[in-house]
Amino acid sequence: QVQLVESGGGLVQPGGSLKLSCAASGMSTSVNVMRWFRQAPGKERELVAFITPSGGTNYGDSMRGRFTICRDTAKSTVYLQMNRLKPEDTAVYYCKAVNHWGKGTLVTVSS
After folding, report:
1. Least confident of 9-13, 25-29, 59-63, 103-107
2. Mean model confidence pLDDT for the chain
3. Burial letters for 48-58: b for 16+ Cβ neighbours within 10 Å, e otherwise?
4. pLDDT at position 62, please?
5. Using CA atoms, how far apart are residues 94 and 49, in angstroms rounded to an integer?
6. What pLDDT is stored for residue 52 in this prediction?
7. What is the secondary structure of the chain as a DSSP string?
8. What Rg do the C-alpha atoms of the chain give, in angstroms?
């Protein structure tokens, strides 16, 4: 059974950094596109970043240059390094692979 478990969220001040993790079980992170989404209160869920099996990456417009997605295949874990965080980055961040979703981790950017 596929399971995705996100961690690493928390409260951070504007301009700060956080690193999220998505630990996958029951599947390989190296043969599937791994995606991070986020959903802010009252807003639709949006794509944050993805990484392909070949290592290609892409980002949402507002995240490009600040966020980095990477993968540790040996640990079956995908990471999202978030730098220069802004209050508008506040959201629940979800990991997705194929049709499987994690339960999310809350990121709050506030002073």
Report:
1. 25-29
2. 96
3. bbbbeeeeeee
4. 94
5. 11
6. 95
7. --EEEEE--EEE-TT--EEEEEEEESS-SSSS-EEEEEE-TTS--EEEEEE-TT--EEE-TTTTTTEEEEEEGGGTEEEEEE-S--GGG-EEEEEEETTEE---EEEEE--
8. 13
